[in-house]
Design goal:
single chain; mainly alpha; 5% strand
Length: 448
Amino acid sequence: MKFIESLKNVWKIEELRNRIIVTLGLLLVYRFGAQVVLPGIDASQLGGLADSADGGLLGLLNAFTGGAFANASVFALGIMPYISASIVVQLMGIAIPYLQKLQKEGASGQKKITQITRWLTIAICLLQAPGYLAALPQLGIPPSAFLLGTGFLFYFSSVTILVTGCIFAMWLGEKITDKGIGNGISLLIMVGIIATLPQSFIQNAATRLEGNNVMLILFELVIWFVIILASIMLVMGVRRIAVQYARRTASGGYEKSAMAGSRQYIPLKLNASGVMPIIFAQAIMFVPSWIGGSALLKDSTVGAWMQANYSDLFGFWYNVTFALLIIVFTYFYTAITVPTNKMADDLKRSGGFIPGIRPGSETSEYLDKIMSQITLPGSIFLALIAVFPAFIVKLMGVSQGWALFFGGTSLLIMVGVAIDTMQQINSYLLNRHYDGLMKTGKNRKAVA
């Protein structure tokens, strides 16, 4: 088979083979750390915490950490503080001139931005770690599980370990990016999500088998594969804008004839913002429930309604609000990450133009118009995939843990990271004159 032959070719390239081995080794270290329980906590009494993190918002957090959250592990915070810090720094880059200046300085500026992100990650960890430890008794861990009590010594040592664990996970991700294959931070999140998939599927399948619903299991798997294909279409979908490059003549000028230059394309992605709108919206969705439980509204009818409806990850009002926020944030994030003005300027400087559109401001306006047109269906499609787990739970009675893999952030991260990693492997194969892993790869013959 062609796929098996491609895998053999992967192993033949020494550099690619070494990078894959390094990646798998570092991922194994991360998964091992997710099983190491914090010192001073009895690992045999964590059943209550695991039950609390079986579904809902806590289930989502547990999925992102690969079960480390429910294990009270040294990696319980996962890599999410780093992701939060990256988002904050990216958003601050819009308003803070110093960060804007760093973004324009190339590699040296990016190095300083990375250092700022690391320090902000530590600050976020120092806020999240005590909150996580304080919540453990409310999440089902009995007092007898705290072998050293819950005094200053426990808090100081555990906060230190949780912060160190997050920094170590961040270091692993950077090393994978540098020495391995794929984006390290994204791979850590993906591996954490995949780690909880078998258990979620087995629990759901066991429930179905008790009711003799074998065909329902198969039907769920078919729907799962269909939603994966839909996610791949969303991630890979692009609108190609034809571009003409004028050819320089012997006299030093340019031939403006459309037949003279080379024809290329600007690929505008259907979903240029990736999973970021879902992450933004997910963060905002914690607010209504928190407001409903605040001292101001705690005993009121409105507060009770907000707590009841916005604490249910699969509830109607939660998902309606969630979908609307995703659409809004998709437009917002696309606007700040797709620099149509810069694209138009770069195109003009390189002697390129869009046929029928004048270079400069008209090209920028044209690209902005196209982005607005394709962002609407892209944002709606993204919102539908994000809320699809709620449909699965309500219509088919799928367990909440297994339903999280039918859409939302979990599935899109898995699909996006897998495609990105395969594309990198594909590039190595094509550069060494092998057939690629992906369908677009072409057999390239080595020149003797």
